[in-house]
Design goal:
globular; mainly alpha; 4 helices
């Protein structure tokens, strides 16, 4: 469940504006994205034909992540605005222009 940083900041701003906010809020997309899809999308954005390399899982590494954002939707009136591919493209553009 990959969420773009500006969406996270917006959720934090909304929580901070609440006077009586209690308990946890899941901030994500409610879309599970596997690493193969992530690699494929990044490779396409970068114009790369590099094959994915799979290393053994690291101790404690999460195998899956899919968050329910229903509470954030109802209490904060928040939903993520930046789709995965757009967020990846923004990060890639930032990396390329910073070099």
């Amino acid at each position: 469940d990959y969420v773009f940083v500006t969406d996270v900041v917006e959720a934090f701003v909304r929580v901070a504006a609440l006077k009586d906010a209690e308990g946890p809020f899941n901030i994500g997309t409610s879309i599970e994205t596997d690493v193969n899809t992530l690699h494929r999308e990044l490779a396409a954005i970068a114009g790369s034909t590099m094959e994915a390399h799979h290393a053994p899982a690291r101790l404690g590494e999460s195998e899956r992540s899919l968050l329910s954002i229903e509470r954030a939707k109802s209490v904060l009136n928040w939903t993520p605005q930046v789709p995965l591919v757009e967020g990846l493209a923004r990060v890639w553009q930032h990396v390329v222009t910073e070099e």
